[in-house]
Structure formats: structure tokens, C-alpha cells
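To fix ideas, we close by showing one paired sequence and structure record:
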Amino acid sequence: MEKKDKESYQSTTVLGIIYDKVASYQSNLYINSEEEIKATSSFPYQSFTVNGSDKYMKDARIVKGEYDRDLKRLMRQYGIRNEAEVVSGYILQFTSRQYANETKNLYDLKNDIVHAYRVIQEKYLHLFWEEFYQVTDESQDEQVKWSEVSKQLTWKGQIDVLTFNDKESVLEEAKKKASAWFRVTYQTWIIQINKYRKSQKNKPNTLTNNQRTEEPKDFKELFSFAWIVYPVLLEIYDETRSNAESNPKRKR
């Protein structure tokens, strides 16, 4: 004899109400990134803009395109989804079947990825600085040559190498170029953020339970390009902040 199902009823207890809601809940993978939007939109982008950087913008776009292709090629090779994982060396997950189940040589694998990215980083670090170390007069023995500087240059020690080789005079021009690298890295993202914020202003403040705020579309640009020359960017930021503090009326 077939057993009859128990009659259902509307629970009035707290646990019962929660159970009823969970039972009827439809999975929703939507993630509200409103706080992330607020955080990124408050970043002082304008503090990295330098007068005179426009002349470097065209070349900066070309070089960034090459850098992004190199980085994406590395990410595809190892099945890494997040740019930050490659840049930092802290790999959270491999999506490539070849490496997803790797356990024995995981340490060596991560070291290989770190080394591969360092090669890319060094390539574009040299592309940035080489023009500032060109010798115009070969008869001047005291002039430092790029072939020697390139051996000294490191990601962290970029400004130190300038000082060591008495090349502080080129720093102002290097700031213009670094500013261009920053602008081409973030200009599309800034447009995206501004569109999102504008759309939020045009919406009512109250939303029903079934409504959700509009999310920006997936953003596939890479952001690490500008930070190849991070010591120069910090010089720009410090100077901008110093000027703003000495002139409070100036807009930040």
C-alpha cells in the first residue's frame, strides 16, 4: 500500500520560515560588486596625470597591446584566470587539465610561472627606460651606456639606478612617459566606472526584493602594465599630493 505524503503547512517558527524560504529559493549566481565599485572609483586616478604625457600616448597604447598579449599567452598556457595570480606568483587555481591535478611538482611549476612573468616584466621595463640612456656623443667616456645600465636595472631599483648613474635630469621626462602608461592602462576602466555611477544616479533609491542593481559588464582589460614602472608613478603621486597641500584651492 502506497504511503500518502504528509500534508504541508505554513510554519510559524523561525526555523520553519527559514526552511520554507530555502526550499523555494532559486539559485542566483549574481554577485553584487557595489562596494568594489566604490573602492575603485575613489582611487586617485587624476593624481597620476602629468602635463606633457600626451606625446607618449600613441606608443603607450601599442606597447600595452603587446604586453597584454604576452601576459594572456602565459595565462592561457597554464590555465590561470586571474592576472593578479600571475603577477604576484600566488596561484590559487589552474584551469588547464595539464596542470589542474598537479601536486608533486606544484612548487616548481609556480616558480616556472614566476620566472616566465619576470622575463615579460623585464622586457617592458627595458623598453620603458632604454630611450633615457641613449648616448648622443660616443666621445664622452663618462656617459653611461645602455648595455651596462640594462644589467643593473631591476623592478624595485629603477630610481636608484637613475641616481647611481647621475641621470636624475631625465626623471621629469620619465614621469610623462609613466603617466601615459598609467592613462592607457586605466582610461577604459574609468569610462566604465563613470557610466556605472551615472546609471545609479538615474535609478530610484528603493528597490523591491526581486530587483537588483545593474552590474557593469565583465571587464577583460589588464591592469598590471602601468605598474611595471611603479617607482616613477609613486614619484608622480607624491609630487601631486605635495602640490595639492601647498595649494589647497587647487582641485585634487
